[in-house]
Predict the 3D structure of the following.
Amino acid sequence: MDGLCGSTFWDSNLSVHTDNPDLTPCFQSSLLAWAPCVYLWAALPCYLLYLRHHDRGYIVLSHLSRLKTAVGVLLWCVSWADLLYSFHGLVHGWAPAPIFFVTPLVVGMTMLLATLLIQYDRLRGVQSSGVLIIFWFLCVVCAIVPFRSKILSAMAKNPCPELSAGFLSRLSFWWFTKMAILGYRRPLEEQDLWSLKEDDCSQKLVQGLLEEWKKLQKQAERDEAAAASGTKASREDEVLLRGRARPRQPSFLRALLATFGSTLLISIGLKVIQDLLSFVNPQLLSILIRFISNPTAPTWWGFLVAGLMFACSTTQTLILQQYYHLIFVSALKLRMVITGVIYRKALVITNSAKRESSVGEIVNLMSVDAQRFMDLAPFLNLMWSAPLQIVLAIYFLWQNLGPSILAGVALMVLLIPLNGAVAMKMRAFQVEQMKFKDSRIKLMSEILAGIKVLKLYAWEPSFSEKVEGIREDELRLLRKSAYLQAISTFTWVCTPFLVTLTTLGVYVSVDPNNVLDAEKAFVSVSLFNILKIPLNMLPQLISSLIQTSVSLKRIQHFLSQDELDPQCVERKTITPGYAVTIHNGTFTWAQDLPPTLHSLDIQVPKGALVAVVGPVGCGKSSLVSALLGEMEKLEGTVCVKGSVAYVPQQAWIQNCTLQENILFGRALDPKRYQRALEACALLGDLEMLPGRDKTEIGEKGINLSGGQRQRVSLARAVYSEADLFLLDDPLSAVDSHVAKHIFDQVIGPEGVLAGKTRVLVTHGISFLPQMDFIIVLADGQVSEVGSYPGLLQRNGSFANFLCNYAPEEDKESLKEDSRTALEDTENEGVLLIEDTLSNHTDLMDNEPVMYEVQKQFMRQLSVMSSESEGQGRPVSRRRLGSAEKGVQTEEAKARGKLIQEEEAEMGTVKLSVFWDYAKAMGFYTTVAICVLYPGQTAAAIGANVWLSAWTNEAMAESRQNNTSMRLGVYAALGILQGLLVMLAAITLTVGSVHAARTFHRALLHNKMRSPQSFFDTTPSGRILNRFSKDVCVIDEVLAPTILRLLNSFYNSLATLVVIVASTPLFTVVTLPLAVFYVLMQRFYVATSRQLKRLESISRSPIYSHFSETVTGSSVIRAYGRSQDFKAISDAKVDANQKSCYAYIASNRWLGIQVEFVGNCVVLFAALFAVIGRNNLSPGLVGLSVSYALQITLTLNWMIRMMSDLESNLVAVERVKEYSKTETEAPWVVEGSRPPAGWPLQGEVEFRNYSTRYRPGLELVLKNLSLHVRGGEKVGIVGRTGAGKSSMTLCLFRILEAAEGEIRIDGLNVADIGLHDLRSQLTIIPQDPILFSASLRMNLDPFGRYSEEDIWRALELSHLHTFVSSQPAGLDFQCSEGGGNLSVGQRQLVCLARALLRKSRILVLDEATAAIDLETDDFIQATIRTQFESSTVLTIAHRLNTIMDYTRILVLDKGMIAEFDSPANLIAARGIFYTMARDAGLA
């Protein structure tokens, strides 16, 4: 039934295990709809027979009968309409499920039958038919459920009010007001967002674009085929064709235009109207000035002009906002469809195509390239609109001033390349600055990863200097780029003025008869203001077009990649009795590669258990991929019967709950689920996870070990109850005893999959005797096939395979034997914990946040191995340790998520944050900015007032005499304004760079001094976020935002000042307009901030789900879940669209409200000018109204900048928060420094010492009192959690005393500075941490030692040969974490560090836990000779290394259990004796 519906038929979670039961759409469309029909058709034969024998005569046709017949016919028509709609969908490519054809057909025929029966009953004299009454009753009952479901879904939806809004409401975006008020009252949540319209949903839009794309692909294929057939036609043609370009790829741009063409045309229409309207107001200003100049003109003319100006501005606003709404929503849809198309393509591309583009690159197509299309869309119409506006502006200017305007236009054109050059240079600086930023973040990441080592060695100052050095380079570039930004601002502000100056200067100079009156001057100023916008936008448009064309090519190339052939594996026909057959199969991973598998002939009987074995690289995994249809088939046939379950070698885990990972889209069947968990040994793991099977698993299964991941992957297969199981070496990731359990319980002849067909790729020889038969592969071919005994007798490649793997297996079997006793006594759930821990090393690779947890896991692991040697019964303790760590892992993850969201959700920013930023910029800088901005505004007003006075002079006299003086003063005021703008920008730049330096330095200073407990409880990812994202905002975003805000604020202020000065009556309307404006601003900022947050929260799941899908595409295809994953992706994209759509609407709503205020300013400026015409000069009116015409843009910009500033200042708040966290004790205490050469003896004394990890936690060491004489060698042993490592941490004051004291050579360590203490002690830590720097830097970051000293240390630490063999020698670059050195070599580098320091006290913290015996022997021998006179404290891992020590300290639960020489302790037969005996040393 699932296949008929294309969805699940029965879901017990939806229908039974719920408080609000419902039936699945499939159940409603099938069984529920068919029930009445089945009843009527079943009853029909008997009923017809009954009617035939009971004829009661004819009943006259009544109104009721007519009505019943009409209803029946209507229902019949509805069913047929349903059927036609399904066919319509089929034609247009949506491909509805078969049920949507079957049900309307069945229901339609039944309704026709019921209608005919109504009439037949009448003819047979039946007044009321029981059969039909029951039929109609069943119809009503069965229709209630779908009716209720529809009501529920309608209630669940939150329809967009735009759909039901009236014409005026839609025109003015008034329908958004409700959300603006809601957002002001409380923070908006996801459920407050409106549902998308059906036509705006991903599925429909993506389907439309895919149809167009497929049409173009088919057309390209036809062209190619035609070209190919033409080539064969004749030799001459061949020659000609060779010269011709190969057939073009289908154009993705054409597909986009076909999909969005109609929207583009409507937007062009709106833009044309808006562009033309923008030139009406300057003409009306010209009429208004003429009206003022003419005292005899009737007053109503003035009122009419003022009214027309308001009407024109308002119409322009409405059309512009509609245009923006249309274009931004289209841009949103554009990104949505590109995302959807890329997602669908990623699910079907071949492996050769995948090889070309990594997961990161494919995700980039979706995130970066799709976003570029969205960014370009608003500018797209500028391609024709900018030239149109430029031409119109020049035309009207020519009308006004004649050829003189060419001087101004020429200046504008000349400034374009200048702006372009500045932009190019800024981009170059940006690229260089990014490199510095990357290296700084990389170094910070390493510092945070190795912060414990830095503290133990007292190396913080050296690394702080390195970070500060990179930071200074970064700030140097930042300053340069900010100076360029200042030049750019200068040209932007001064261009209109310089152009006006040049034009008017040329105009009055070329001809003494050219009189500059108010009309000419201010109409020209208005036109130049219009001209400025397209000229400034053109460079931006060109760079955006270039970027998008690159993105277009990349997307087009990706969409044209080869797809997997769905017909590669035959699923219909297969030889009876077999589940898998391959006949003469040859397969390759890519067409350009040689075949990986060739001439395969394999037949797997139904229900067989088959092993695939062979050496590494012989093609075992490729064989599984070939059966899945993942490889390209060159020849032969592959047949697979039934459904498939696939367990890949690298388990693929989704970022969802453990239960969802196992169910993988299927309905929950509790019994089957429990059986899968038991069989795959997951019940023990559930105990460890905080939410059991409801625990969320992180990306790539980060909070599961490798073994757990593999078992979850296997449980998914077991739960699927498929017919064929393809298991690609699932037992390699788990320990041998776990592998045995899984084989016995799941895969083997007695397992839950017994009776199913199983193909198992394996290296585990112990399982082979239980196989039905074995396929042996060699070099991509089947070398042998047969049963285990049969193959052994042949003595062929299988026998060789056994020989190669036998030594390992022998070791494994020894391990097995040593564990048999444990298996009998301990439950399996506990045993599996070992596998949980042993595979946690992969956390280190790619998850810095998890680093601390990973370290704890490694420590736990080393402790266990030491105890397993020491006590022979490790498992019972192992359970607690791992469970704790598992919980810590999960908590760390969950805590990280919650806190980040909380911080993003902050409301309005406190005033103290503004004050903090002002202080960081510097007092004088802030004051200078506060003086310079009003100064430049005053200069601008002065210049325009001077222009007004100049034009009035022209009115008074018929000609102007002192033009040069007028022009000179005007130029001086304008240039003064420009200089002040530039000075203000540079001052702001200097201030912002100073603030950036101050904040970063304070943050770094604090973090370097934070106690270790801070780093243990805070994920490093969160700290890194402060150093990267927040510092970047302070560096690059805040200053330009403040600059733009100040510009728009003072421009608005200037406008109001000018209008009030010209027409004092304007003060009356200033207050109400200001109140309305502030109110709108408050509503908008509160709502838009929250919408932006919701948008960013919903965006990242799209990309993480996509990268997850790309990595797991083979699993998704194997289980046949591609459609479900497309639906999940569409749902995530739609969720993001909802917040985006509301955000776009909020901007349009704001635009309308704010521009209404601006239009009112224009109206009142013109109106009061008309009212006070007798007291006003035309120059003043021109000045006042031309200023008013600019205000709409300025007011709009100001709110946006205020909103941006508020959201960006959160970065300052976050950085300040982490700059004020608690710090550890001072590094150096000036009044209390230890004497030179301290410690001389190396005597260590603990006096009644207790400590805890953090306040509120239990004591880890309790009342320790011991005395270690100088030069003694003391071994420290004990169980997990006994406090061994805590002791060493106390010695270095990583942990501070809760009570008591530690004295070294009689000096209390709590009285001296941390660096004075730590620099005099030496530790070889358990984790050999190296930094990505030269070897010299890793050994001696302060440069204190000579070259000879370093080489001697390397010689003693057995690294001399390795380092001297490197071309760079001591400058050999270690990679991050020392990745290019082995663990043993890294530990030897740590030994070399210790040898260089040669201090009197040496601590070894399980220093040899992770290395081989040979390196261990090197280290022990070196320590014995080189630290002969030093005090050595060793936390022992291998007991044989401390048997010759002076004394052994045995700790138990934080207290001293035993403390004596090894011989005495063994004689006392206490704890140490049992440990030594188990290690074979006593």
The mean pLDDT is 80. Residues 460-510 form the longest helix (51 residues). Residues 408 and 414 are 10 Å apart (CA to CA). The first strand starts at residue 578 and ends at 588.
